[in-house]
Design a protein that fits this description.
The structure is a single chain. Strand 5 and strand 6 form a beta hairpin. The strands form 2 sheets. Strands 2, 4, 5, 6, 9, 10 and 11 form a 7-stranded mixed sheet that branches. Strands 1-3-8-7 form a 4-stranded antiparallel sheet, with no helix packed on it. The longest helix is centred in the first third of the chain and has 4 residues. The chain is mostly beta strands and 129 residues long. The N and C termini lie far apart (38 Å).
Length: 129
């Protein structure tokens, strides 16, 4: 079983919305109870960048480019992580990855990709004008 599996990507016009899902059951079944979860994206020719992250007892973290438009959330009962994306822009076009890592007392995982050691295969989001 893959530890993380994304779904929900697709094509959308600018101004529209999409919701990405990540099945985290494989990762959680590995026994790690202190974890952080995040969404990252990578556009062609660009470096991977953090989009949003969530971890226990801390406020979610968002990249400045998506603040006010994207929202990260969890459904712990069903082992899912979500990314609700609204007011999409063409610059949001990228492959989106779900990631998980071990939470430490400090510092927060945040959007630092090196803090995450498990990654999904990605789901493509394409936003057109």
């Amino acid at each position: 079983q893959a530890q993380l599996a994304e779904s929900g990507g697709g094509m959308q016009q600018a101004g529209g919305s999409l919701r990405l899902s990540c099945d985290t059951s494989g990762y959680r079944n590995s026994g790690n109870r202190h974890y952080c979860l995040g969404w990252f994206r990578q556009a062609p020719g660009k470096e991977r960048e953090g989009v949003a992250s969530i971890e226990l007892s801390r406020e979610p973290t968002y990249a400045d480019s998506v603040k006010g438009r994207f929202r990260i959330s969890e459904d712990n009962g069903n082992n899912f992580l979500f990314l609700q994306m609204t007011n999409l822009k063409p610059e949001d076009t990228a492959m989106y990855f779900c990631a998980a890592g071990t939470q430490l007392p400090w510092p927060p995982c945040g959007l630092t990709s090196s803090r995450y050691n498990s990654w999904g295969q990605g789901t493509q989001v394409t936003v057109s004008n």
